[in-house]
Design brief:
Helix content is about 30%, strand content about 20%. α2 (about 20-30) packs across α3 (about 35-45), α5 crosses α6 and α10 (about 280-290) packs parallel to α11 (about 315-325). With about 375 residues, the protein is an alpha/beta fold. The chain is built from 12 helices and 13 strands. The protein binds S-adenosyl-L-homocysteine. S-adenosyl-L-homocysteine binds near residues 129, 168, 299 and 345.
């Protein structure tokens, strides 16, 4: 029977998590089901984190059987958790094609932040970042970004609740803009989605100046990894992203960014001993960002095997911070978390030396 619902949906089944809302509505319509079933199924996927269609108990047995015959949910079964001595947890998920992606759970006082990845590897080649040395394996799809959140929630301990999400894991979020945006739209959906407040989400970019404006409609916070205060320095440290936009172009895009009232931009700045951590660097940084509603996060370099850079001593970090603060700009020093499991900033990548495997959390 041409055109009957079964024929329409007998194409190779997509995983339910790979469908956006309108694709899900099409699937529901193709089955000849009432439209409200779209929200029901999406609610099972994103609010209740169902792993099987059998769990969807407000669908009749027959409907669940129909759905199971045509499609699967598509949750990733394979996740290994590495626990750091400071209780940071790195989750390594194996994707359908065997590639691995990493997300990091970072508890800190009253916060529990999840750091998510947007690419396997990275488009960029920043020399101080382990992920940058891997090259790009591929972009993540929206559901593969969301899977990191669902899996992290599945691994929370009693009494834990995610409070913040940062797109600061592997990859350059703005190089995978569409998938990242779709993931954020689903995560912030409060009809059938988990209803994340965009204020609790931060997207970090190495500086794809022309795409900053595309972050604004998502309502999330924007962080820009400056890391250098002259074009020469930036070209050396971050050649690919420097090739896309000079510091001048990047800062102009930052000044033009339509910040919502009471919000501010974040500038991240990796401190590399003897390279970009001198008083003159701090003074130039102040000049570059003066007048922008912003704060600065200073990130002392986290080493990884084979890296040529060094972490500055604390006194140099504090001196740098003092210069920025004296100029009236808030500057914070990012605590380094999860370094013993290569879970800290810039340490994510396909490196799991034996000493890390021994930290495997088997609970
Ligand atoms: N590609 C995006 C997001 C991932 S990196 C970006 O560049 O913003 C998240 C942050 O970690 C960035 O600010 C980056 O500059 C910083 N970082 C990268 N490698 C680091 C390292 N080895 N030590 C400390 N911070 C690092």
């Amino acid at each position: 029977m041409v055109g009957c619902p079964m024929n329409t949906v007998s194409r190779p089944a997509h995983h339910l998590l790979s469908l956006n809302e309108s694709e899900m509505a099409e699937l529901v319509a193709a089955f000849g089901w009432p439209a409200y079933r779209t929200g029901q199924i999406l609610g099972w996927l994103y609010q209740r984190r169902a792993r099987t269609i059998a769990e969807m108990t407000d669908l009749s047995q027959a409907d669940r059987a129909t759905l199971s015959a045509r499609t699967r949910i598509g949750r990733i079964p394979d996740c290994v958790v590495f626990r750091s001595a400071d209780s940071t947890r790195k989750l390594v998920l194996t994707l359908e094609d065997g590639l691995e992606v990493e997300a990091v759970l970072i508890p800190d006082n009253d916060r529990l932040t999840l750091c998510v990845s947007t690419q396997v590897g990275c488009t960029l080649d920043c020399g101080f970042c382990l992920t940058g040395t891997m090259g790009l394996k591929r972009n993540l799809k929206p559901h593969e970004i969301i899977e990191q959140v669902l899996t992290a929630q599945d691994h929370l301990e009693a009494g834990e609740r995610l409070s913040n999400m940062v797109f600061m894991g592997m990859g350059e979020p703005l190089a995978n803009l569409n998938a990242m945006s779709e993931a954020i739209r689903r995560l912030t959906n409060n009809t059938w989605g988990p209803g994340w407040s965009p204020r609790r989400i931060t997207v970090s970019t190495a500086g794809l100046a022309s795409r900053l404006k595309d972050v604004a409609p998502l309502g999330v916070n924007l962080a820009v990894s400056l890391n250098a205060t002259t074009d020469e320095q930036r070209a050396r440290l971050m050649p690919a992203v420097h090739g896309m936009a000079s510091l001048k172009t990047l800062l102009l895009a930052c000044r033009r960014y339509p910040l919502a009232p009471h919000r501010r931009l974040t500038f991240e700045y990796v401190l590399l001993a003897g390279v970009n951590d001198l008083a003159d660097d701090a003074k130039r940084l102040v000049q570059l960002i003066r007048g922008i509603r912003c704060k600065v996060n200073l990130i002392p370099f986290n080493p990884f095997p084979g890296s040529v850079f060094r972490r500055p001593p604390d006194r140099d970090v504090l001196a740098f911070q003092a210069i920025v603060r004296e100029a009236g700009i808030d500057a914070f020093i990012r605590k380094s978390r999860g370094r013993d499991v290569l879970g800290a900033c810039g340490q994510l990548g396909n490196q799991s030396p034996p000493f890390i495997r021994s930290n495997l959390d088997t609970n």
